[in-house]
Amino acid sequence: MARLFSLSVLGAASALLATSLASAQTLPQVSVSGKATEAVPSLSGFNDPPAKLPMQALSLSAERLDELGITQLSGITKLDASISDAYNAVGYWSQLKIRGFDLDNRFNLRRDGLPITGETALSLVNKSGIEVLKGSSGMQAGTSSPAGIVNFVVKRPLAEDGTALMLEAIQGGTVQASVDHSQRFGANREFGVRVNLAAAHLDPTLRDSKGRSHAAALATDWRISADTLVEAEVEFNRQSQPSQQGFSLLGNRLPDAKSVDPNLNLNNQPWSLPVVFDNTHASLRVQQKLAGEWRAQAALGIQRLRTDDRLAYAYGCSDANGDYYADRFCPDGSYDLYDFRSENEHRDTTALDVSASGPVQLAGLHHDVTVGGLTSRFKSRFQRQAYNYAGTGNIDGSAVTPAAPDLTDENTNRDERSNELYLRDRVALSADTSAWLGLRHTRLHRESVRTDGSRATDYSQGVTTPWVALSHAIASDWLLYASWGQGIESEVAPNRKRFVNAGQALPALKSRQTEIGLKTGTQRVEGSLTVFDIRRPAWRDVVLPGFTECSADNSCERRADGYARHRGIEASADLKWSGGGLFASAMRLQARRQGSADASLNGLQPPNVPETTLKAHVRQDLLPGLQAQLGIRHEGSRFATPDNSIAVPAWTVADAGLRYMQGVGNQTWIWRVAVDNLTNRRAWRESPWQFEHSYLYPLAPRTFRTSLEVRL
Predict the structure, then answer these.
(1) Could you tell me which residues are beta bridge partners of residue 316?
(2) Is residue 212 in a domain?
(3) What is the pLDDT of residue 37?
(4) String of b and e for 76-93 (b: at least 16 CB within 10 Å)?
(5) Which position has the higher pLDDT, 35 or 207?
(6) How many other C-beta atoms are found inside a 10 Å radius of the C-beta of residue 204?
(7) C-alpha span between 194 and 192 (Å, rounded)
(8) Burial per residue of 623-650, b for 16 or more beta-carbon CB atoms within 10 angstroms, e otherwise
(9) pLDDT tens, position by position, 532-581
(10) Residue 344 lies in a domain
(11) Exposed (0-12), middle (13-18) or buried (19+): which is 18, by Cβ within 10 Å?
(12) What is the pLDDT of residues 232-264, one digit of tens each?
């Protein structure tokens, strides 16, 4: 039944796309109005519009995010079938899966194209949109997981002056307000300023998670001449909020989600403290027109993060019979509770990117070329941390234990230097056919050491990641393409006595992706149908002869062992008609472990990865100014453990909303009322396998929200 359902989902999506495309010529004219931002270079690195690129690129505007009440990165899982949760807890940083692979928060995030770390709560207050490039990311990043790249696009001064005020209230007690103001100055309006301010009292329906946040951002530009543009911006934001402790398996049993209170937060000890994120971001960018059609750009970005990470942390248990459960709770609902505190964490990133792009005639062919270099520095500094047994907790949340805040555990400091050279080229083979090339060479140096000076590691490595594609326009608005690319991940064997290769650099793991796609894009219709195949090598700690487990000195070796293979098909459609539209996507994914020397691992599906996913959001005008909206999200069944012994059922959720726009003098007032999880569905939203432990997070209960936006 699951296979039939998944095939029907993709068939329906494909049929919808085909029908919509076939009828595109008869659709009424759609008028789109608004204040466009200044052009920002696409994360893809090419100047072609998304519908003409031989890759899957998703662009989510701030307006689309506002319509769905999305205020953090994890919220985009509502919108695209290929993006799912990967340990997303209230009050903590966002983590995503793309095409079944975990996005690495250290290496797969960008801010206006420059690398940042996502190990913090990233504000969307001053973001004009979010870009997602799916699949192999080697062309855009030196080292990264093969999931893809996520880019935050910063709001810049607009061509026209404007102000937007927003006030929102969410069931439970959350109230947030923001202001967005853009203005130009000077005799020729050559100076621009954009200010974003926001503050929130956080009080979600999840109990014991009250907090607060605020953000302030300033972006400026100076149009020195028609050929020169200088842009500078700075952002400060802070969030303080207790995070959410997940549930878990009860022995060998999946607890019934209908019997679990989704508003219960197990991080509810009297000594539980908020997680505090203090962030500073800043950048300076200069764009210069050169001779002919060539352009040059230099961009400098900094990120300074400070974090107090604290949690009443549930992990494993010992039951009354003396049996120990390392990766789940006890059958009776009890668990070992730890007092975890890692305060005054500092993560600093500095990056400089310099590039030039323009046309070249070579061997009788037209080339659009970009050459550039990126240098980045990352430094993390920590203090000793608390990770102490504090007693026994229970899933009813009634247990109270004493605090154990002593700093008894060491942390790990890290340094990384990365220098990258890259080349991108689009070659026009004919009027309808193009070849595409991306090439990046990376030299990196990494060091780590425990806070007591132990377990030091230090290594250097050089890697090269190619990407090639061929595209052909089979009609004026249709593009057929095929692509192949590599990605690189680099790490060191843990510097612990049980590893014979402790502290040694491991061979760089090269992931490979092949993709074939069909795309279209007009003012009224955008759509795609894509087939992909990704292979990512896997690490395994192999127990050496003479030992039974990886615990004694020199008992095991970390080595490459087989690979994860993710094959799938995606369909998406973004349709616009007079008075409404549809944004929908579906994915069928087969993710399996293959090629391991341990035959028992082959054929297993990774935990927390649904095979079938469907996301759709439709909007339709009912009366002048009044629009109704309906969203449907479906995620298929998944497994809670790596051995696939316990399955988590599929779930489907509906969201609904109304938007009313009215003119008040020269102002536009936009009223929004919405309800998430309309039917109050009870289910396990995700089952992340984190720190060798199986966790469960429930769907948030039915939640009402309302807002007023005033555009001046």
Answers:
(1) none
(2) yes
(3) 39
(4) bbbbbbbbbbbbbbbbbb
(5) 207
(6) 21
(7) 7
(8) eeeebebebebbbbebbbbbeeebebeb
(9) 999 999 999 999 999 999 989 999 999 999 999 999 999 999 999 999 99
(10) no
(11) middle
(12) 999 999 999 999 999 999 999 999 999 999 999
pLDDT average, residue stretch 327-331: 96
Predicted local confidence at residue 77, as pLDDT: 97
Above 70 in pLDDT, residue 596? yes
Exposure string for 349-368, b = 16+ CB within 10 A, e = fewer:
bbbbbebebbeeeeeeeebb
Distance (Å, rounded) from C-alpha 329 to C-alpha 248? 6
Q: Which whole number is the average pLDDT over 145-149?
A: 90
- Give the distance from CA 188 to its chain's centroid: 40
H helix or E strand, kind and range, residue 473: strand 457-475
Instruction: State the CB neighbour count (10 A cutoff) for residue 47.
Output: 15
Tell whether the torsion through CA atoms of 60, 66, 71 and 75 is positive or negative. Answer: negative
Query: Rounded to an integer, what distance in angstroms lies between the CA atom of residue 675 and that of residue 21?
Result: 32
The full 3-state SS of 345-359, as one line of letters, equals EEEEEEEEEEEEEEE
- For residue 27, the model assigns a pLDDT of 38
Report yes or no on 676 lying in a domain.
Answer: yes
Eight-class DSSP state of 250: B
- Give the span between the Cα atoms of 427 and 364, in whole angstroms: 10
> If DSSP codes are grouped into helix, strand and coil, which group holds residue 133?
strand
* Cβ–Cβ < 8 Å for 658, 629: yes
Cα 254 from Cα 258, distance rounded (Å): 12
Enclosing domain of residue 561: 2-23+42-290+301-335+375-404+413-711
Rounded-to-integer distance, Cα 99 and Cα 573, Å? 18
**35 pLDDT above the threshold of 50:** no
C-alpha 206/C-alpha 58 separation (Å) is 31
What span, in angstroms and rounded, lies between the C-alpha atoms of 266 and 259? 15
CA R_g for the chain: 26
DSSP state of 406: -
* Rounded Cα gap, residues 284 and 154, in angstroms: 12
Say if CB 654 and CB 679 are below 8 A apart. Answer: yes
The answer to whether the beta carbons of residues 689 and 608 sit under 8 Å apart is yes
CA-based nearest residue to 184, from 172, 174, 193, 175: 193
Q: For the purposes of burial, counting CB atoms within 10 Å of the CB of 177, is it exposed (0-12), middle (13-18) or buried (19 or more)? A: middle
User: 16 in helix, strand or coil?
Assistant: helix
**Planar angle of CA 8, 481, 356, nearest 5 degrees:** 135
Which has the minimum average pLDDT: 51-65, 90-104, 276-290, 612-626?
Answer: 51-65
* C-beta separation of 67 from 672 below 8 A: yes
Q: Please, are residues 401 and 393 in contact by the beta-carbon 8 Å criterion? A: yes
Closest CA to 54 of 440, 370, 482: 482
Q: Which residues contact 501 (CB under 8 A, 6 or more apart)?
A: 493, 557, 558, 559
| Confidence label for 45 from pLDDT (cuts 50, 70 and 90) | confident
- Asked if residue 295 belongs to a domain, the reply is no
> In the Cβ-directed half-sphere of 286, how many Cα atoms lie within 13 Å?
10
The encoded tokens of residue 707 equal: 């807002």
Residue 224's pLDDT band, with cuts at 50, 70 and 90, is very high
The tally of domains found in the chain comes to 1
Taking phi first (over 0 means left), then psi (-120 to 50 degrees means alpha), and beta for anything else, what does residue 186 get? Answer: left
The 3-state DSSP class for residue 596 equals coil
Taking a C-beta distance cutoff of 8 angstroms, is the pair 155, 194 a contact? yes
What's at 165, amino acid-wise? L
| The one-letter amino acid at 25 | Q
Instruction: Check whether 338 has a pLDDT greater than 70.
Output: yes
The domain spanning residue 460 has which CATH number?
Answer: 2.40.170.20
Looking from the CA of 221 toward its CB, the CA atoms found within 13 Å total 25
**What pTM, to 2 d.p., does this model score?**
0.93
Dihedral sign, Cα of residue 543, residue 546, residue 547, residue 553: negative
Q: Is 705 left (phi over 0), alpha (psi -120 to 50) or beta?
A: beta
Please report the pLDDT score of residue 254 as a whole number.
98
